[in-house]
Amino acid sequence: DWSSDVCSSDLFVGRNVLIGRGTVLSCKDGDIRIGDGSNLAMSCFVQSGRTVTIGEKVLFAAYCYVIGGGTHRSERTDIPVMDQGQTIRGIHIGDHAWLGAGVKVMDGVQIGRDAIIGAGAVVVDDVPPYHVAVGVPARDVRDRRDAAARE
């Protein structure tokens, strides 16, 4: 019996979503919601310990990891880290965002709509809408609307 009392996790995949070969969606005590028209390329990994929301027409290049699994507590030394619990906040990726190849998005992050994350970046802080972030850890380098205004 897979009633809601037994299975608390939920997976929602919108219309016209592409999920590439080898991509894993793991609802580990949480929900994953993927909006219409999004594209997750090959060998991506999305894990949810609470809620991971991927908006509409979001583009993931290959090997992106979205790790909505939380931060392990580690204050105590008398018990293993694994037994100390976690703080889990969830992840939100806004509509039309683009994650380059190999991007890692850590728990608690919100990536705004139309944001771009450069290849190989590790996102540990929020990225505002329309901004470009690159590096390890990812840092905000520009607002895409500034270039549009110049044109």
Question: How would you describe what is shown here?
Answer:
This protein has one helix spanning 144-150, and strands spanning 10-13, 18-19, 24-27, 31-34, 39-40, 45-48, 51-54, 59-60, 65-68, 71-72, 86-87, 91-93, 98-99, 104-106, 110-111, 116-117, 122-123, 131-134, 139-143. The model is unreliable at 1-7 (pLDDT under 50). Strands 2-5-8-13-16-18-19 form a 7-stranded mixed β-sheet. A 5-stranded parallel β-sheet has the order 1-4-7-12-15, with no helix packed on it. Strand 18 (131-134) and strand 19 (139-143) form a beta hairpin. The longest helix has 7 residues, at 144-150. With 151 residues, the protein is mainly β.
Provide the descriptors you would attach to this structure in a database record.
151 residues; mainly beta; 7-stranded mixed β-sheet; 5-stranded parallel β-sheet; 1 helix; globular
Number of strands: 19
**Cα-based radius of gyration, to the nearest Å:** 16 Å
Structure annotation, total helices: 1
What overall geometry do the principal axes of the alpha carbons give?
globular
The largest β sheet comes out as: 7 strands, mixed
Low-confidence stretches: 1-7
Distance between the termini: 58 Å
Residue-averaged pLDDT: 91
Secondary structural class: mainly beta
* Main sheet: strand order: 2-5-8-13-16-18-19
Oligomer: single chain
Order of helices and strands: EEEEEEEEEEEEEEEEEEEH
Relative helix content: under 10%
Approximately how much beta-strand content do the residues carry? 35-45%
